[in-house]
């Protein structure tokens, strides 16, 4: 990205997206922050995301959309909770106050209100506000990206697809960031099982921008969901040089690469990716996505019977400080995997007790309300499985099997809980659970044929219980 191509006050106004500031530098840095967010890359030539946010705020400390994007990104990263972090809560409140006391557009006011709603955990209300903005301003990429990410956090798969579909006709190829829409739309198509269309859309994105890590990510999902292991491995290897520099997403793409190896039973290859990429990325970034990837991968390997050594002890150092955040149920579950894996009973207790407290009076907080019927039984299932209480694990997970998508994340990420239910049912001494395991495996094989992992589990079921 060249600073000369960044949009100033006049450029934003000419695109119908007026920014209420007289500072061209603030407008350009807003563009730089937005571009890095959409492209998943810290541009070191500009000082990265943090550097650009600092320059933007220095150029105009009262720039409302500057506060919106800075605090919105902090919130959407889910690494800080306004309930525990007074500094973040204060920054969100300042954003709202600035939007009310300054002469800003209605679009900017709605943006500030949406950030406030997201901070309070009112994710559906925040999405409604971003959708309201997009009705009148379909080329407002910030509103689109925030909505897209929030739908992801709620497991709202059709909405994630359709929020992009609705605005696509209003975008033209010459517009900045146009190409990235293809990868965003492709991901929504993947998550609604439209794999052929998803692959085609992501390929269009890569033809416009070979370095689009999100389009790569969407194709990685296509291969994962179809159990096209060899195609997936080849694709990741061929494109690696294009996306490995996208530091905000590279770790997750390596996670997908490792999943293909786990699918094949190539555990050493998966652990090599964990050690060389995922663990190193976690240590350098401390990012929430890197944390959940590390937890998910080690837990999958452990279910496969792989000894992961002391790796949990390293991972839990990063997750432990977040034990009582409860920003996302999805995050809580992964934090719990790490504390169980590291045998840190006190951290496990903190996660469970604080979650039980939060869900008692969730108010309008979407995730806390989710914790009552979904979060707690799923967390309890992890604890029971760890304690060897396999029948109890099945009793907790099986009734909510089809509600689990509500915790958000992707189908590929949530597959860990499908695998957990199968493993628990296989290990349970209850005959009905053993039959359930067979049924779950038949169901899995029907939806995702030719999966080596499913074949392994079917062979295990036959060996353990003689289920033909």
From TrEMBL:
<dbReference type="InterPro" id="IPR011990">
    <property type="entry name" value="TPR-like_helical_dom_sf"/>
</dbReference>
<comment type="similarity">
    <text>Belongs to the TTC38 family.</text>
</comment>
<protein>
    <recommendedName>
        <fullName>Tetratricopeptide repeat protein 38</fullName>
    </recommendedName>
</protein>
<keyword id="KW-0677">Repeat</keyword>
<dbReference type="InterPro" id="IPR033891">
    <property type="entry name" value="TTC38"/>
</dbReference>
<keyword id="KW-0802">TPR repeat</keyword>
């Amino acid at each position: 990205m060249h600073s000369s191509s960044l949009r100033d006050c006049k450029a934003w106004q000419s695109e119908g997206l007026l920014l209420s500031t007289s500072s061209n530098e603030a407008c350009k840095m807003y563009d730089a922050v937005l571009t890095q967010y959409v492209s998943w890359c810290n541009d070191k030539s500009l000082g990265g995301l943090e550097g650009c946010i600092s320059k933007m705020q220095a150029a105009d400390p009262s720039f409302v959309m500057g506060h919106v994007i800075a605090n919105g990104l902090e919130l959407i990263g889910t690494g800080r909770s306004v309930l525990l972090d007074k500094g973040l809560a204060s920054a969100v409140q300042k954003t709202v106050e600035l939007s009310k006391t300054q002469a800003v557009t209605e679009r900017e006011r709605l943006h500030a209100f949406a950030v406030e709603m997201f901070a309070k955990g009112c994710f559906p209300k925040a999405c409604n506000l971003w959708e309201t903005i997009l009705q009148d301003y379909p080329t407002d990429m910030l509103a689109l990206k925030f909505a897209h990410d929030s739908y992801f956090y709620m497991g709202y798969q059709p909405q994630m697809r359709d929020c992009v579909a609705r605005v696509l006709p209003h975008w033209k190829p010459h517009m900045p960031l146009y190409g990235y829409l293809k990868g965003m739309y492709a991901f929504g198509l993947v998550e609604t099982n439209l794999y052929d269309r998803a692959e085609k859309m992501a390929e269009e994105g890569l033809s416009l921008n070979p370095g689009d890590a999100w389009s790569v990510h969407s194709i990685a999902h296509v291969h994962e969901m179809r159990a096209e292991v060899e195609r997936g491995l080849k694709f990741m290897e061929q494109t690696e040089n294009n996306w490995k520099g996208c530091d905000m997403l590279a770790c997750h793409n390596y996670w997908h690469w490792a999943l293909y190896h786990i699918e094949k039973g190539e555990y050493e290859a998966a652990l090599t990716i964990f050690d060389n990429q995922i663990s190193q990325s976690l240590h350098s970034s401390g990012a929430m996505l890197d944390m959940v990837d590390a937890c998910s991968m080690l837990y999958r390997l452990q279910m496969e019977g792989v000894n992961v050594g002391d790796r949990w002890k390293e991972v839990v150092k990063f997750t432990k400080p977040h034990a009582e955040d409860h920003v996302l149920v999805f995050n809580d579950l992964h934090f719990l995997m790490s504390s169980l894996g590291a045998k840190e009973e006190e951290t496990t207790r903190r996660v469970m007790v604080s979650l039980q407290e939060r869900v008692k009076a969730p108010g309008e907080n979407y995730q806390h309300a989710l914790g009552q019927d979904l979060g707690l039984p799923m967390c309890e299932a992890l604890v029971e499985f760890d304690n060897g209480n396999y029948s109890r694990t099945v009793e907790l997970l099986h009734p909510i099997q089809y509600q689990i998508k509500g915790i958000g994340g992707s189908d590929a990420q949530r597959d860990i809980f499908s695998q957990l239910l199968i493993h628990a049912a296989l290990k349970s001494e209850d005959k009905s659970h053993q039959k359930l395991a067979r049924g779950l495996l038949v169901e899995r094989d029907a939806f995702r044929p030719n999966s080596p992992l499913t074949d392994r589990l079917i062979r295990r079921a036959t060996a353990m219980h003689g289920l033909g």
